[in-house]
C-alpha cells in the first residue's frame, strides 16, 4: 500500500482565549491601564500537530475543557489559531450543532433548502436529494409546517438528514450522534458506517467512549490543550479513564496543575462464562453454578490492583456486582498475565439474557481497563415466574370474613 | 446520491490531486480580498436565500405581510409633510413638497436600514457564525439584500407619485438616481462590514449607530432645503456638509425625481462630486473588507 493521502494537516497550532470581563466602553475607559486585571487568558490548545489520513475515522476525546471542540473548530476554520496553521483539502461539512441554520419561522421545506445551502449544496443538488432527505428524516407529514412547532426529535431528525446528504469528503461531528429515538439512532449510525465504506474521513468529538471503540480506527486524547495520546482507540480509552481520576484530583485539591495519567496500563484479554466444572457454556438453568473467568495483562508491574464484575440485564440494569476489593481478596503484584475467577454458586438468576462487564483497577482504585458486555449468558425461561431474580413463588387463598 | 457515488479509492485519488487550502480566511492584502470575493460569489445562492429568509420571517405571521414595510416611511412622510412642511412653514419656497421629502426619505431609509440591520447582523446570526464556516461577509451583505427589497417598493411609489404630480421627466438627470444608489450601496456596505465586526467586540456600537443615524437624517437636506443651510453655514463648512455621502445621495435623488434643474440649490458640479466620493467609498470598502477579515477570525470565540 502506498503512503496515505492526508486530508487535514494541523501544524503546531496553539490557541489562546482572552476572557474580558468588561465589554462596554464605560467599563473599558474606567479600567483603562489596569487591563490585565480585567482579562484572563488561557491556552485552549498548545502546540498541537496532527495529520489525518483520508478514509480514517478519528475520535477526539478528553475531559471537559480539554480543547477537543476547539481543535475541531480550528480544523473547520470556524476559529483562527493564535499561532500555527491548519490546512485541509476536499469538501468539508461540519455538524457542530444540528440545525444551527434552522430558522424557527420557516417551514421544514424552506429550512432544508436553507440549511443545505449553508452546508454548500446548490439549489439544483438539493432538489435532487430533497425526497431522500425527507424520507430519511421520516417526517413527511410535517415538512410544510414551521419548524417552531416541531418536537425536538423531529427537529434533529431533519437536521441530521440534511447534513448526511451533503456529500462531504471530510465530516466533522461534535456530540450530535446521541439524537432521536433508538430506531433513528441506528439509522444515523448505519449512515456513518456507509460513509466509512465510501472512504470519507470523519473526525468525531464525543464523550461516549463506546462510540470511539466502535467506530474509530484512531483516537486522540486531549488534556489541557495538549495531545496526551494518539493511537488505538482501545488504548486511548484506557488512558482517558486513568486520566479522569487525575483530573478529579486536580479539581479537588484546587490547584491547576494537571497530573499526567499515572502510566498504569492494564488490559482485559479475555472474559468467559463457565459452568461449575470449568467448561465454557452459554445456556444455563436457574440454580446452576457459574464461573466468570477474566484474563488480565499488564505491561508494567502493578502492585495494587483489583478486578470488578457487573452482571446486567439487557436494559443495562445492574443485577449483581462485586469487586475483588469488596470481596477482601488481595492479589500479589501483577507482572505479565494472570487469570481471575469469580464464582457464583447456585446462582438464582431468573430466565433471560445477561451481559458481563469487567473492569480493572490500579492503585488508588483508578479504573485502568474496562470490557463492557465482554461476555453473555442465557438462563432458561420459567413458565411459572419471570424477572431477573428467581424465587420459588407460589400462591394460595383464604377467605376473609 | 446520484452522480456523486465513488469508491473509496477514487475518492482518495481525487483528494490526492486536490490542492491544500488554509482553513478559515487568509490575511494577505490583495490575494485575501480576491479570495474573499470569489468565496462570496460561489455562495451567492446562499446569499439570496438568507435575504429571502430575512424577508419571509419578518412578516411571516402577519395578515398584511410586507405591506407593513411601507407603514413606517409613509407615516414619516405624513408627519414631515404636515408638521415640518405646514406647521413650521418649511414647505414655503419648495414646490411639490411631498415629492421632495419622499425622494430624500427613500434613499436615506435605504442607507439607514443597511447600517442598522447590518450592524447587528453578525450577532443576530451568532448561531451560524459559531457553528459553521461560511464567508462571514455574507451576513451583512444579506441585510443589504433585504433592505434593497424594501427600497424598491418605496421607489416604485416614489416614481408613481412623481409621475402623477408631474415632476418626473425623462433625461440624463435620471442618472443622478443611479449615482446616488451607487454611493449609498458602497458606503452602506463598507460601514455595515466595519460596524458589524466591531459590534461583536463592543456591543455599544449598535446604540451609537442609532444616534448617529438620527444625526445623519437631520444632517442632510431631506425635510428642509439646501438653500436654508447655505445662508447659515460659512462656505468651508457648507462644502463638508454637501460632500457627506448621504447628502450627495439625497441631492441626487431630489434632482432625479423632484426637480432636474437643481432648484433646491444643489451644486452644479454634483456629478463630479458624486464620482469622487464614490471612488473614495470604494477605497473605504476595500479597507473595510480587510478589517472585517482581520476581526472575523475571533468572531466565534467572542459571541
Automatic annotation (TrEMBL), chain A:
ABC transporter domain mapped to chain residues: 8-249
One GO cellular component, as annotated: membrane
Pfam families: ABC_tran, Wzt_C
GO MF term list: ABC-type transporter activity; ATP binding; ATP hydrolysis activity
SMART domains the record matches: AAA
Keywords: ATP-binding, Nucleotide-binding, Transport
ATP-binding in keyword set: yes
Keyword set includes Magnesium: no
CDD domains: ABC_KpsT_Wzt, Wzt_C-like
UniProt family annotation: Belongs to the ABC transporter superfamily.
The protein's name in its UniProt record: ABC transporter ATP-binding protein
